[in-house]
Design brief:
216 residues, seven-stranded mixed sheet, 10 helices, 7 strands, globular, binds 6-(2-methylpyridin-3-yl)-8-oxidanyl-3~{H}-quinazolin-4-one, binds magnesium ion
């Protein structure tokens, strides 16, 4: 039977990236998606030295939560920029995506920094303290399903997983768009938000990231 897009993306990583070299893994996926087959990775414009990379470097987080692993592209991007000892927990609902992502993360040599957990964010977020020993997250990257951005943000608040200064960075707030999340986060006194205009990965379609600092 025909391979899946994530399987073809993993093949490109294995063929063109160097084991243990995260930057070559990121480059291999960007090249594959730009020249061979589009895939929903945050990409090298929203990713490259601009927004995602600069926010991660600026926050220099000790604990990161990524919602939506897909093939592990942003997982690798973020994990490469983390300070020693920092931990990234990434949640993926789709088992096929999770299987590919584990192999991409392993190829990059980042297994020690990354904990990929399969399941739904709504079920797993309430378990972060007791099962994963997390006190709070310094950075949350929302890149899963637009309809879960708002409920999961409220869940993070209710579970006491955000502290003063925690940063939420949400992908795709324009395309596909998450209007209820934007409405909430931009009008809540508990957050200070900033919008970074960009484009849908590998295209000229308008998109953007929303960076929100939790004020406690
Ligand atoms: C798949 C797609 N098609 C057309 C336009 C945008 C998308 C798209 C792009 C992304 O970066 C996504 N990130 C996380 N989750 C998504 O569902 C998702 C969907
Ligand atoms: Mg995205």
């Amino acid at each position: 039977t025909r391979s899946t897009r994530p399987q073809r993306l993993l093949g490109a990583v294995r063929r063109t990236a160097t084991r243990g070299d995260p930057r070559s893994v990121v480059r291999a996926i960007d090249d594959f998606c730009r020249h061979t087959e589009w895939a929903m990775n945050v990409g090298d414009e929203k990713g490259t030295g601009c927004i995602l990379d600069s926010v991660v470097s600026e926050v220099s987080p000790a604990t990161v939560l990524e919602l939506g692993t897909y093939c592990g592209y942003s997982t690798v991007r973020i994990a490469t920029l983390l300070p020693p000892g920092a931990k990234l927990i990434t949640l993926e609902f789709n088992p096929d995506f999770a299987l590919i992502a584990r192999q991409v993360i392993a190829w990059a040599g980042l297994e020690e920094k990354v904990h990929l957990v399969e399941g739904s964010s709504g079920d797993l977020i309430p378990l972060m303290k007791e099962k994963f020993g997390v006190k709070s997250f310094d950075l949350v990257f929302l890149d899963h399903w637009k309809d879960r951005y708002l409920p999961d943000t409220k869940l993070l608040e209710e579970c006491g997983l955000l502290q003063k200064g925690s940063v939420l960075l949400a992908d795709n707030v324009i395309c596909p768009g998450s209007p209820d999340y934007l409405e909430y986060i931009r009008n809540s006194p508990k957050y200070r938000s900033q919008h970074f205009k960009s484009h849908l990965e590998y295209t000229k379609v308008e998109d953007g990231l929303e960076k929100s600092v939790f004020l406690g």
